[in-house]
Amino acid sequence: MRDTRESRLLLVLLVAVAFALITVDIRGGEDSPVDGARQAASAVFGPIEDGVASAVDPVGNAVSAVRDSGERHDRLAALEKENAALEAKLGSDDRNRSRLAQLDKMLKTAGAGQYGIKGAQVIAIGAAQGFSWTVTIDVGAHDGITRDMTVLNGDGLVGRVTTVGPDTATVLLASDPDFTVGTRMESSDELGFASGQGDRPLRVELLNGKAEVKKGDRLVTFGSQADKPFVPGVPVGVVSRVDPSGGDLTRTLYVTPYVSFTKLDIVGVVVEAPKKDPRDTVLPTKPKPVPTPTVTVTVTPNANAPVEGQEEQ
């Protein structure tokens, strides 16, 4: 066919018709309304297609590419959906594993101290009290929870119950500035009072201003009368700094709490106090000290050095 204006116009027309038919055909799928027309058109336009193959093939390839691209997009979307579901499942499994680990650790802590606990989950942070360091847990009066019960987790002291609803309760965290708990030093039995300082270490005032305390010493709760609001023996934290003794009646310590108050999830409310004070038995096992390597230097005498009593030649 000669390259004339008419042939180019025919080519454009054929391409336009082809695009239109392909669009309708793709949307119709197996029940395409142009299926019969497509077969008839194939017979009519077959010879013409042979004549313009060199011009139409690039367009046909482009259309095929678009169709394949659409199919690949659909497959990609399906795979992305499957991957998202799998990641969500894995994430959920990871979270469940984390919770199981927390629960297991808490049960071991409760067992070591002989605390009867009611497991709970932190469902909210903050409360109506304002800017207090508080959390809401998913157990309440219906679960036997009452005001002034000790709250702990697998690491140690979390806080105390302050407000109780039918199915939830508010816990004042040990980090809150209004929080105070009686403490006892491990081994030395020195007594004091720990107060929260927000995101800073707890401040502890020892009753004995001359008490011998060093960094790394550990504290537990001293306990309260009738075990409310605090049961004895719950790990509180580790001494991180000791103020110099200035002859005051008390001595100030700064204690890094065992509990990370910004990562609370599974906690336990002590609903039954131990029959006897567990003392230091609930504290975690101290890590073994790492030996400091020593270097021995051996001096080798120089064979050419003069011997004492002999003159150098």
From TrEMBL:
InterPro entries referenced in this protein's UniProt entry, alphabetically: Cell/Rod_1, Cell/Rod_MreC_2, MreC, MreC_beta-barrel_core
Gene3D superfamilies with a match to the protein in the record: Rod shape-determining protein MreC, domain 1 (2.40.10.340), Rod shape-determining protein MreC, domain 2 (2.40.10.350)
Keyword entries, A-Z: Cell shape
Ranges of Low complexity composition bias in the record: 293-307
Ranges for region Disordered: 277-313
Entry keyword annotation includes RNA-binding: no
Similarity comment: family membership: Belongs to the MreC family.
The protein's name in its UniProt record: Cell shape-determining protein MreC
Organism in which the protein naturally occurs: Streptomyces galilaeus
Gene that encodes it: mreC
